[in-house]
Amino acid sequence: MIMETAVENKYTYKDFESDQEVRWCPGCDDYVILRSMQKALPEMGVKKEDVVFVSGIGCSSRFPYYIDTYGMHTIHGRAPAIASGVKLANPSLSVWVATGDGDAMAIGGNHFIHVLRRNIDLNIILFNNEIYGLTKGQFSPTSTVGQKTKSSPYGNTQPPFNPGELALGAGARFYGRISGNSPKDIGQMLIEAHHFKGTALIEVLQNCVIFNDGCYSNVTSKDVKEDKLIYLEHGKPMIFGKDRDKGLVLNNLKLEVVTIGENGITEADILIHDAKEKDPTMHQMLVRLEYPLSTGIIRSYNDLTLEEREAEVTKQVKANSKFTKADDLFFSGETYKVD
Amino acid sequence: MIVEKSNLQSEALETVVIRFVGDSGDGMQLTGTQFTDTSAMFGNDIATFPNYPSEIRAPQGSLFGVSGFQVHIGSVEVSTPGDNLDLLVAMNPASLKTNLYALKPGHTIIVDTDAFNRKNLEKAQYKTNPLEDDTLNNYRVVKVDMTSLTKEALKDIEGLDNKTITRSKNMFALGMVYWMYGRTTEHTIDFFKKKFRKEPHLIDVNTKVLKAGYHFAETLEFIPNAYSVSPAKMPSGTYRVIMGNTATAWGFLAAAEKSGLELFLGSYPITPATDILHELVKHKHFGVKAFQAEDEIAGISSAIGAAFAGDLAITTTSGPGLALKGEALGLAIMMELPIVVVNVQRGGPSTGLPTKTEQSDLFQAMYGRNGESPAIVIAASTPANCFDFAFQAAKLALEHMTPVILLTDGYIANGSAPWKIQSIEDLPEIKNNLVKEGDDNWSPYIRNEQTLARNWAIPGTTGLEHRIGGLEKDSITGNVSHAPENHEIMTKVRAEKVKRVQDVIPEIKTEFATTGDLLVVGWGGTYGSLHSAVKQMNHEGYKNIGLAHFNYINPLPKNIGDLLTKFKKIVVCELNNGQFVNILRMHFTGIEFLQYNKIQGLPFGNSELMEAFKKLIK
Question: Which of A94, A118, A334, A339 to mutate to test the interface with B (most CBs of B within 10 A)?
Answer without folding.
Answer: A334
